[in-house]
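Re: beginner question about structure tokens

> Can someone show what the tokenized structure looks like for a real chain? I only ever see the sequence side.

Sure, here's an example I had lying around. Input first:
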Amino acid sequence: MKHRQEPPGDKNIIGSRVVAIRKSKGIKQREFLARLQTLGLDISQTSLSRLEGQYRLVQDYEVLVIAKALEVSVGYLLGEERVK
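And the corresponding structure tokens:
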């Protein structure tokens, strides 16, 4: 697995939380992609990597699906809620 060599971008605010939640739950990126696709969000590995690195804008409908796939609230992804 390659580690990100560049600092995070500024295109979204959920990327770092997506990575943290995904890793804390032991979900590999491929498994997460499969979950997203099962929920109707067709996203490539490159797009997910760019989203997680905060180099890609995120659409509102994507935030909803990502939250559902990670079993967290949209508010948490957006930084409005703390971990319970």
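Each token stands for a local structural state, so reading them left to right follows the chain. Residues 14-78 form a domain with the 434 Repressor (Amino-terminal Domain) fold (CATH 1.10.260.40).
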